[in-house]
Task: structure prediction
Amino acid sequence: MRSRLLPLFPLFATAVLVGPVTAPANAADTAAATESAPESAPESGSVRPAFPDSTDDVFLGEALEAANAHRERHGAPPLEPDGELNAYALERAREFSEYEGLDEGHRGREPGRGETVYYSASTDPEAEPGGGDAVDHWYAANEDYDYGDPGFSPETGPFTQLVWRATTEVGAARVSEPVSEQDTWREHYVVLVYSPPGNMRGEYEENVLPPER
Result:
């Protein structure tokens, strides 16, 4: 039986960034460029079966509403939902779920698409993250973004992709671990994919605007 030391009821969550970056112009840019490295890294073996789809219309509506509310605050146009991107987000969420936590990184992401990932787990088997939970978690990094020195960082990357002005379409999905009496916790993955992708080096100033008061 799998067990870990977790709080009795709350979710915990982790977000990781993906956004395309151009080749580093100098050594100082290398850290940002490595964010795209998992795309071409060799595949590793999964450690468990993929989780089943737990996406529903409520989840999709929450994710879109939250994303567009945050984008509006930053002068970005609303995202349009896209069925093809929804399907791809589900494919990616299932791939992530084959690995513990977020161990898989962003290996296998298709070029030309942005991606943000949210992972949560809880000892409450009924606690599923809503679409707004994931989006709000990514957006919280806006407090750490330096608009006076725009650019990439792993901590703020999910936020900058979320509000990237040039992004126009989004897909979303959620997968959840089947409920089991043998497990002491239940895991979930939420993935949003974006087109065109954000986090393009040299384009932050015009795409990530300060929030409107």
